[in-house]
Amino acid sequence: MTKRRRRTSHPKRKSPKDPKTKAHEFGGRQDIISNLPIEIIRQIHSLLPLKDAARISILSHLWRNIWVSNPNIHLDETDFGANFYKYSDTDKDKRDAFLIYLQKSLVNRHKCEYDCAVDTLYLRITVEDSIDEFLVENWIDFALQNKVKTLRLILRTTYSEWFELCNIEFIAATLVELKLEYCEIIDCSFMLPSLKSLFLDDVCIDDDDFNDLIAGCPRIEKLEIVCPATVCTMVLSNPRLKFFGLHFPCCDSNVLIESKNLETLEFSFVCECMCEVEITYPTTVRELSLQDSYNLESTLLHYINKFPLLEKLVLPNGTCSCIQVSHQHLTNFVVNVLEEVEEVRIDAPKLKSFEYTGGLMLFTGIEASRELEFVHLHLNPEMLNDDWYICLRDMLESFAHSKHLRLICKNEQDIIFPNEITDILLPTINDLENLELQIESSTATSQQIIDGFAWILPRLKTLSLTLGSISKLIEFPDRRREGAFNQEEKLEHERICGE
Amino acid sequence: MSSTKLLTLKTSDGEEFKLDEAVAVKSQAIKNMVEDDCVSNAIPLPNVDSKTMTKVIEYWKKHSEEGVSKDQLNDFDKGFLEVHHSVLYDLLLAANYLNDKELVDVICQEVADRIKGKTPEEIRKEFDIKNDFTPEEEEKIRQENAWAFD
Lengths: 499, 150
Description:
By secondary structure, chain A is an alpha/beta fold.
């Protein structure tokens, strides 16, 4: 609530008689935007791209103070033209300029008369001289001492494999989110009682430091580790840990999760041997996501049977031709673009929601999931040929029993059966009564789409058609007769209801 | 549809506006008063004048209408915000006072859009912002943030 601080917090402004102001230039008109409450000026400021935000620090003392005390600090060498991901010493002068900027900004912050609490510090830099490490550490200290909530450090050097964060005290009662990339953590101390989310990407940390880190964040809820270097054994027992993600671990790692409230697991395993992950309380796990698995079939089998109360399964690209999912409690299943997979066999009697993104796919066994309510099929057919339309027809039939079936495609061509196919006597789908169609962009009219599509669904009662951002609900009269339906009657009915 | 209750809002210049409660509660401040049950008489709004209140109500009504597509609302917003910055200022203060976060967000975005891509001189001219720096101070800041002035 900002009411209590409306005008009283406005900083002292120079009087009009002061020779520094140029009132005559503006004919004495009121500079009222600068009179807005500070919180609103900050909000406007936060909506500006970085360069604009920095530029307006030149408008007046007020605007400069707003910039200098901006609680969201974004320090990125790429804003100065240096390429972080492809080092080249031709960027040296850009990096030098960035260093000077880092230096001056820190000095300005220390001098600033406004409240200097930091919400976010984002720092991305490639350090070329070890003496500049101090500047980085000073920034980290500044943030930690000024109530930082989110800290993201992406640090590299030209003279060592990792940026060494050595003997740093990560002590902050306010820190909620910490993300570290490419650093090496050596003998640091951690006291982060409010930390909820921790993300380590390509971070070098040994078992002892890792244990200290984990012990230092007792309230952690989300832990995500990508390409961990050197940490071999992880034991996690933080009681509030709900989400654990492990991507591309090295072969000989062991993970033991003793947390009693673990809900979501995400894994990417690309080596031939899997890293061992043991979960002491598997009954709390509700969601499993396997991304980029080398051997999807066996990984899937290995994990799906571990979690008896699993509800949601997310699968990625795979390299096997058939995926089998068999689970008694699974209620949500999400499948994304399975290259090389030709068939998905589903035995999940309690399945309520199913989401698929991809092209040609054969789904077997799904008819037995009678509780199916929401089915979203995001269609990306690689080729529009007979195979596609036959597959589309089969897909629709497999999911006809669901309460809400939605097809989402880029273009109406994906779903309008071309005339040649109708001659091949493609059997109609008689069970489908309600359908939702969502088409991103279309050159056809709704009528053309309905004509090209609805003939295969003789029992269709309602069709919700969304073209772009406009939705229409079309109801069809009861047509229990075989053969072509009455065009006129149908058009009349549409005009009356739903259009 | 639930029964529509009418609320009376009284602006700083004494004008009264009658409005459906369902629409008026877009203002969190008014909503709180409704929930605390202190709306039997006219709700006084001493920090909003009638000219600004009329515009605010115009916005609330359009955004409460049924059957308006997203595109139509965007067109309305664009026209609604095509005003002099002094009007935006009054609207912003009113929306802030009435605690209508959606309206505050929309107007802040408009002000930000008017600032984006402009040179400081252009911004000063448009918003009548007075420069209280000496030429030396200004040059120092320009140098410090040279990367932003390219």
